[in-house]
Amino acid sequence: MPPILEIHDLLVERNRRPVLEVPHLDVLEHETLAVIGPNGAGKTTLLLALSRLLRPARGEIRFRGRPLTAQGELAYRRRLGMVLQHPLLLDLSVFDNVATGLRFRGRPAQHVNVQVETWLEKLGVAHLRRRRARSLSGGEAQRVSLARAFALEPDILMLDEPFGALDAPTRARLLEDFHSLLNTTHITTIFVTHDMDEAFLLGERVAVLLAGRLRQVGSPEAVFNAPADPDIAALVGVETVIPGKVTGPASPSSEAPGGDQLLLIEAGQFQFEAVGQASPGRPVLLCLRPEAVALWADNAGVPLPADQTGGRTSIRNRLRGTIRQLTPQGPLMRVVIDCGFPVVALITRLSAQEMELRPGQPVGASFKATAVHLIPR
Amino acid sequence: MTAIWEGIKQAFVLLVGGDPEVMQITLLSLQISGFATLLSLAIGLPLGTLLALGRFPTRKFWVSLINTGMALPPVVVGLVVSLILWRSGPLGILRMMYTVNAIVVAQLVIATPVVTGLTVSALQSLDPRLQLQLLGLGASRLQMVTAMWREARLPLLAALMAGFGAVISEVGASMMVGGNLLHHTRVLTTAIVLSTSQGDWADGIALSVILLLLAYAVNLVLTWVQQRSAQH
What we know:
The complex is a heterodimer. Chain A has 2 domains: 3-230, Rossmann fold (3-Layer(aba) Sandwich); 238-300 and 309-376, CATH 2.40.50.100. Chain A is 26% helix and 37% strand. Chain A has helices at residues 43-50, 73-77, 94-104, 109-122, 138-150, 168-185, 196-202, 220-225, 230-235, 305-308, 349-354; strands spanning 3-14, 17-28, 32-36, 58-63, 66-67, 80-83, 156-160, 188-193, 205-210, 213-218, 240-249, 261-267, 270-276, 283-288, 294-297, 315-329, 332-338, 342-348, 362-368, 373-376. In chain A, the strands form 4 sheets. Chain A has a 6-stranded mixed beta sheet with strand order 6-7-8-3-9-10, with helices on both faces. In chain A, strands 13-12-11-14-20 form a 5-stranded antiparallel beta sheet, with no helix packed on it. In chain A, helix 4 (109-122) crosses helix 5. Chain B contains 11 helices and no strands. In chain B, helix 2 (20-53) packs across helix 8 (153-168), helix 4 crosses helix 5 (100-124) and helix 5 packs antiparallel against helix 8 (153-168). The longest helix of chain B has 34 residues, at 20-53. The N and C termini of chain B lie far apart (46 Å). The model of chain B has no long low-confidence stretch (mean pLDDT 92). Chains A and B meet through strand 6 and helix 3 of A and helix 6 and helix 7 of B.
């Protein structure tokens, strides 16, 4: 897929201080690129710079291979559709709000009518067409705002945390509808969010911004399971990071497709197995997502799972510790285990009740070698 | 108390009877102040928009200057405009002194800062991200500005009302640059001053009532437009 937007050496400054640096980023035609990062990471600044609503101090943006110029700015902006976190509807009827962008472009009235009616229908707000925008609920207003952007049939849709201000049920419904619209329209979309679930659901690729710098771009699986550095790991929810050292391959014939190997890693008193690429003696960080860690009550005399299954389990790493903290998270329970270093697991509340977990209790934790992501130190 | 009552009765008689002199003064007041207000709108709306939405180094200085201008004393304006339009002044060649045009100029100087200052405040009361959203929807700069005027139409109408109120009620500037010449430059406020100074309280009160009714009628129309817009 060819890039629709190419960003080279982009630098945005505020009060002569750099707030955004993007050495290189391509946005591919028809893809949904999710831009993630914590608050203040520069996500909105990136969106504003890409839509030419903000002048960068340096750098080049190419649209379909051609560099953007000040002269072509308006024409370029008219190829875009933009949705902000707050809908910012005009004090007009719903119909007129959706028609606004089309009228800015001087589209004939008949075309405006068809587009507005079509997109009001698709976003499920056709019944509100005569209502004043200021009388809408938050969810309705955001649907109208999305209809306003889709009605333009833009080459690129730019969205700045459009679901961030909605309550959970409204957000879930709108997210589902929006996802299905993206799948049917295939509009190139740049979607800014700090919600990892949204990024994972919508993004075909994910770009990570941290402290104003683009740090990683890749598929959601690559970014979430194999973050490039510990900061990204923390952002995408990798809560267990253990410093260790590669001692060698687990066995001489342990090479997996793609050049990965089953490696032995020494971390304090423990030895782990992990799949990855690193030469012996290399210091690494073992990264584990909390949902990859399984727990069992470590009662005296009860053997480890591998022993129970006669060694037929794929779980290769086991360790013991005591529970330091239990924190409910919706239907799940976040468990912090002290194994000499903290290991975080996410289990169901039901499991926690069945195992009668409580702080101070000894437990066993296990995880697969393939669940470990190694970051070279 | 009797004088006030007599004045009110006199106003009724003058209004109902259609006194030609009063009608001419009233119409002239309306024309001069209406025209000055429209001119101030033509200047103050774009200027206020530039100050509200523009980003340039001296912006805050100009806004503070405009805000100060909102409290300009009419006699000071009258004095400055007189000095400029006086025969030996920089614009004396225009021979505008003691003409209707001179009053329009003076009233324009009074109303423009009011309309400009309130335009700045009206546009700055809108969500600052609205500008970005409109541009993001593909608006040209002009389309963006007109959309923002439409969004701020209620406070902008209030700016118009305030501008008209400031000039229809001022007397100092009109007196100094107009000269209060009967059938030429006499407006309601200068006529009231003249009646009062001559001890003709009844006429003074009658003209004051007419002035109040005129100001009320104009503001009633503008308020009606404003509130109709607020309800829809």
